[in-house]
Amino acid sequence: MELSSIYQPVQEDLEKIEDKLRSVSRVDSPQLSEMLEYSLKGDGKRIRPVLTLLSGKFCNYDLDSLLPMATATELLHTATLIHDDAIDNSPVRRSRPTVYKVWGEEKAILLGDYLFAEAGALTATTRNLRVIKLFANTLKAISSGELNQAFNAFNPEQSHQQYFQRVSKKTGALFCMATESGSVLSQAPEESIQILIEYAHNLGIAFQIVDDILDFIGTEEELGKPVGSDLTQGTLTLPAILLLEHYPRDNPVRRLFAKRDGQDDIKRAIELVRNSSIVQECYQIASDYCAKACQKLKLLPDNSSRQSLIALADFVISRKK
Amino acid sequence: MELSSIYQPVQEDLEKIEDKLRSVSRVDSPQLSEMLEYSLKGDGKRIRPVLTLLSGKFCNYDLDSLLPMATATELLHTATLIHDDAIDNSPVRRSRPTVYKVWGEEKAILLGDYLFAEAGALTATTRNLRVIKLFANTLKAISSGELNQAFNAFNPEQSHQQYFQRVSKKTGALFCMATESGSVLSQAPEESIQILIEYAHNLGIAFQIVDDILDFIGTEEELGKPVGSDLTQGTLTLPAILLLEHYPRDNPVRRLFAKRDGQDDIKRAIELVRNSSIVQECYQIASDYCAKACQKLKLLPDNSSRQSLIALADFVISRKK
Known about the structure:
Two copies of one chain form a homodimer. By secondary structure, chain A is an all-alpha fold. Chain A has 17 helices and two strands.
């Protein structure tokens, strides 16, 4: 199913989020305004704010608080991407020069900080202490997950468990914040909230696994950024872990990580992953997470939003970018 | 007066803040724990958390909320320093290698993000929506002030007004958060809160002016970092603005900013500032801000904390580091 069909139950309100994102860009400083506009332009998938809105549909849908919260979710996501790109010196994302590339590292870092704050300020307007705490703890989880990744850069000795723990923090946490905040702000019963958190946790992990697969099998055009970026950064993702297990001797990932450089080894690793069962194995694991994500959704009220959550899990697997 | 005497009314609770800072370092990841411990070690002046505690002394001093808030204030300050050092590639601060120098840029940025989040989480424990919003807006003010500085790097055409506006955001805002949160959390009447905000606003500006003077007249030993850092970064501070006004032709700051490099011009600028009336003029302006800071304090209850706030204003002018 296309994203536009999946988003249908909240399409109108998603447009209000786009308005709200545009209003974030309207600040006194013309230079800051330009940076904000550039980084919040509507070329993301907006999965996270949609999750917030959809999760609000199982009890008292309260747009007044869901709108700032969903916007905060997208801002937090954008801020982490801006910092990631600055850290990785990434020149391109979504087929556009990154903030880092256009404005340089210093301004990219400060813009990320500004967006964290703006996201926090929007979260505070909900006046809901549970989601306010959730917001802070989510940023803690994301940054500690990213730090774990940084500490393990070019380390070939990492277990599946370490990978899943890290992914759960760096990607799962924000997915969880999206659904938990949406359901809390619509005063859903605690059982429904927990079901939606579990959904998002598993969906987030599946989403990241597919991201990590696409970094091996996608094209630069589809991805909007170079293929093999993870290996270049020394990040050991699931396909690379499986590659190390499948080829314990004379392995290009091991060579690359030992030298911390080498285009030939990156090419060789990509080739090996593409021409092996690894892609299929990874997709199987991602699908298992998606199945787990949807398992308990049937306990929620049967409505179009529940259908969308299920369809979103399919989309996460089938997406090409 | 020595800082230890000024801090006397809240000395015991300041030690509890040190405990709380140590407890922030106790996390599962040993690498993160080490970074946190290093960056939160007790070698800062702790002026901001002391301001929070002192400001709590004019009504119902509530340590249960003041303690996390004062700690959050120090964490937010630390996070911005860590990002500043990463941005400026500064190797030394407080006579120690910076987090950037020891762990590199990537981990420094992520540690800063983590500390923003930890500060936000501690602020949320106060369950006070006013201070929670204040926290987010303070981080917005600081980062937009820093962005303004970045946008104006190596620009010699900046007015006094621009300088004071920037300083008010990048330094004043956090001082204001410190006193506003302290007085709000102790349920002080709104007039007292406003007096303490105005105090902090003016004190913060004075503090930054003195910082900017010391960058010209201090010694590397006193400052714990190289002299002339601001000029190296292309930051136009008050002494440099006055230097441009005093010597409109053949000015080393103008030469330096045009070339964006030049140790000789930095040395010459420092010499000129030291051997002119500029230092005195800047100190006069800082003193005026301090006087303004203290002006309305007499309207607050007369207690030892009020004495400390007045003494702190003197300290801000007389400090050598």
